[in-house]
Amino acid sequence: MGFHFWQHALDLISTAPCRSCGGACEPASPSPLCGRCLDALALPEGGLQGDQPLLWCALAPYAAELRGLLLRQRPKPDRAVVSLLAARLHHCCASVLPGAWLVPLPSWKRSGNPLPALVALALAEASGGRAALAPAQLLWRSRPTLGQHHLGRSLRARNLRDAFGAAPAGAGLNRPLWLVDDILTTGATACSAAHALQAAGHAVQGLLALARTPASAPR
Ligand SMILES: [Zn+2]
Fold first, then answer.
1. Ligand 1 centroid vs 195 CA: distance in angstroms?
2. 21 alpha carbon to ligand 1 midpoint, in Å?
3. Which terminus of the chain has fewer CB atoms gathered within 10 Å of its CB, N or C?
């Protein structure tokens, strides 16, 4: 046994399979994705930014390989993959994070989309403590809303009016806020949450997301 046993054990450690394609990663790479899968995501240097309908920063367009990866993450998140994407997003928005609280967009159901909270947590970790996860009681869904996929822009806005409640600012709840979501589509959900927070006296800076649906997309 001796040498062969240890060689085999080392191979297992140093070539963990890629979490996306299952292929071999580069030996001793800390990345959960292999080089080919990472390249295929085609993440633009510096990410994407815009100011409509609110100030936002995203990692890349919600399309192609990134879309496929996120669709697989929603029902079954892999923390290593979420951390990798959050670290890349941090690279794009690090300058605005010091002193901020990150506010994941809450789901109505406990079993809702887990990604916003996981991304916010991973982003706080990537910031090395310069940004922190906001207290959970800061923002909540005040009523259920319809699924947004099939609704047009104006129906989305109506669907989301007063959909969120927020704790009043002050009494230790007083820091610049960045909303966090996995995918920014029309921004109707983020705007609804931002209005609730602003009405409660908070300074909402904008939204950070992993992906932004291309403007030309039908949804
Ligand atoms: Zn791969």
1. 40
2. 4
3. N
**Beta pairing class for 164-166 and 177-184:** unpaired
pLDDT digits (tens, 9 = 90+) for 190-216: 999 999 999 999 999 999 999 999 875
The answer to whether residues 110 and 141 touch, using CB atoms and an 8 Å cutoff, is: no
- Looking at domain 44-212, which of 2.160.20, 3.40.50, 3.30.70, 3.10.110 is its CATH number? 3.40.50
Q: What is the value of pTM for the model shown?
A: 0.87
What are the tens digits of pLDDT across the range 92-113? 999 999 999 999 999 877 778 9
Q: Ligand 1 centre from 3 Cα, in Å?
A: 30
Which residue from 33, 50, 71, 55 is spatially nearest to 207, judged by alpha carbons?
Answer: 55
Q: Rounded to the nearest whole angstrom, what is the distance from the C-alpha of residue 36 to the centroid of ligand 1?
A: 6
86 class by beta-carbon count within 10 Å (0-12 exposed, 13-18 middle, 19+ buried): buried
Q: How far apart are CA 157 and CA 148, in angstroms?
A: 10
